[in-house]
Structures are given as structure tokens and as C-alpha cells.
TrEMBL record:
Organism: Salipaludibacillus agaradhaerens (Bacillus agaradhaerens)
Segments passing through the bilayer: 20-39
Protein name, UniProt field: YqzM family protein
Keyword tags: Membrane, Transmembrane, Transmembrane helix
Lineage: Bacteria, Bacillati, Bacillota, Bacilli, Bacillales
């Protein structure tokens, strides 16, 4: 057995971490899109 498999640093579920990463990335691009729409509407 690999020595890294014995002592894992994080035992959290990877699906939770990737879900959080997806939400953060999606929220960032949605925020940029909303800002662009507000600027387009104002001008």
C-alpha cells in the first residue's frame, strides 16, 4: 500500500469540494454578466 494512502490530509468528500468550486466559478461569471447588463442598460 502507498504511504500516502495511509495518512490522508483531508477525509472530506471530493464531490462537495468540486460542487463548491463550481458554484464559486459560476457565481463569478454570473456577477460579471449582471454587471455588464446593468452597464449596457444604463448607457
Amino acid at each position: 500500500m502507498n504511504e500516502f494512502e495511509k495518512e490522508v490530509q483531508s477525509k472530506r468528500n471530493d464531490a462537495i469540494d468540486s460542487g463548491i468550486g463550481f458554484v464559486v466559478g459560476f457565481g463569478f461569471f454570473a456577477l460579471i454578466f449582471i454587471i455588464a447588463q446593468v452597464i449596457d442598460l444604463a448607457l
